[in-house]
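Subject: design request, 146 residues
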């Protein structure tokens, strides 16, 4: 639960380097559609292979993205954990809400996380995170990680 709370808080507070620090050295991060995931297609909206690409996404999101101010809220529930060798397979549902100054709060995205979590020293980290969204339609503002 600590890893999932830390991850969500980092994104909600715009601390993208802290988000990147939730991943192991050889981590993979993907944002994909339910349809692509179910068909086993590797096509992803965001794809990072390794910590270097994840760090680059964090830097790019925080330093070069220009968008209207917004507040995001990640809600994670239904976490299911299964031991898997030296790590854990974890599945969780997510809902992302967005509030902009001139609009009511709206649902931006829903879906599930399909993760592999490992222990590195005294800390849990994502070795793989696949964010599977329920929709094929995305807001144009999907530049930040999910």
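Subject: RE: design request

Done. Sequence follows.
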């Amino acid at each position: 639960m600590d890893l999932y709370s830390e991850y969500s808080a980092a994104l909600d507070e715009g601390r993208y380097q802290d988000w990147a620090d939730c991943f192991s050295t050889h981590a993979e991060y993907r944002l994909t559609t339910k349809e692509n995931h179910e068909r086993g297609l590797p096509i992803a909206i965001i794809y990072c292979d390794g910590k270097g690409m994840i760090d680059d996404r964090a830097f790019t999101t925080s330093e070069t993205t220009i968008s209207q101010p917004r507040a995001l809220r990640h809600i994670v529930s239904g976490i299911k954990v299964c031991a898997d060798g030296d790590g854990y397979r974890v599945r969780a549902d997510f809902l992302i809400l967005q509030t902009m100054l001139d609009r009511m709060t709206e649902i931006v995205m829903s879906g599930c996380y399909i993760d592999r979590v490992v222990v590195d020293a005294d800390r849990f980290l994502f070795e793989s995170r696949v964010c599977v969204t329920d929709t094929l339609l995305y807001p144009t503002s999907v530049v930040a990680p999910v």
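Residues 11 and 145 are 7 Å apart (CA to CA).
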